[in-house]
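Quick one, tokens below:
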């Protein structure tokens, strides 16, 4: 079983509106485990709190490493909080102890607007329906996924069409409060992102054509 972790980079001091809302921390988000609630480039604003209930989205530090994760609380156990990413097919391997928690996610800034994080029992019920669908989809997609990954490893598409396609894309260098990032655009739409921490994400089927090490670091 593979557990997916999200990467965070702590940003500069809180803006005034966040202080008024009693926000005490914020994080730069990258990853897929909480899609579509959080997306690459979003800022997560958190509060500290003694009361954490199922449905809350928490930011916590992994026990045996420095990774920071944002996932939703599903159950309360004697060992801690059992969590899962909204877009993940598995629960996290170990319960989260209270001392690992850095905050409860309350707001999201996607660059154009600040939205409230949906939490509580109602949100959890909706997410549980999504998880059932993910379980079914995972079972149905397994043969396709195996074929796709095997085909991708051959590098045939990149060998045949990679050089041609790389001439069609535009590389955009950006700088924001969380640091530099590089975007790859095709016909005006972002198809890949290279973050300053080395994380690379690419939309399918473009990942069959793009060699990230060559196109970003040549």
């Amino acid at each position: 079983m593979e557990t997916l972790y999200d990467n965070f980079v702590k940003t500069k001091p809180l803006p005034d509106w966040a202080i008024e809302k009693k926000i005490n921390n914020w994080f730069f988000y990258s990853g897929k485990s909480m899609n579509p609630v959080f997306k690459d480039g979003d800022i997560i604003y958190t509060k500290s709190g003694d009361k954490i209930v199922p449905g809350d989205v928490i930011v916590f530090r992994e026990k045996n490493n420095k990774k920071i994760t944002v996932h939703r609380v599903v159950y309360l156990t004697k060992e801690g909080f059992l969590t899962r990413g909204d877009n993940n097919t598995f629960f996290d391997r170990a319960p989260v102890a209270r001392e690992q928690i850095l905050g409860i996610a309350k707001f999201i800034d996607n660059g154009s607007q600040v939205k409230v994080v949906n939490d509580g029992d109602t949100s959890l019920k909706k997410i549980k329906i999504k998880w059932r669908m993910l379980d079914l989809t995972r079972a149905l997609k397994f043969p396709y996924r195996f074929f796709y990954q095997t085909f991708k490893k051959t590098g045939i598409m990149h060998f045949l069409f990679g050089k041609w396609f790389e001439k069609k894309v535009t590389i955009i260098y950006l700088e924001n409060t969380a640091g530099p990032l590089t975007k790859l655009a095709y016909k005006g739409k972002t198809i890949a992102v290279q973050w300053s921490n080395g994380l690379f994400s690419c939309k399918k089927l473009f990942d069959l054509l793009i060699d990230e090490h060559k196109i970003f670091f040549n």
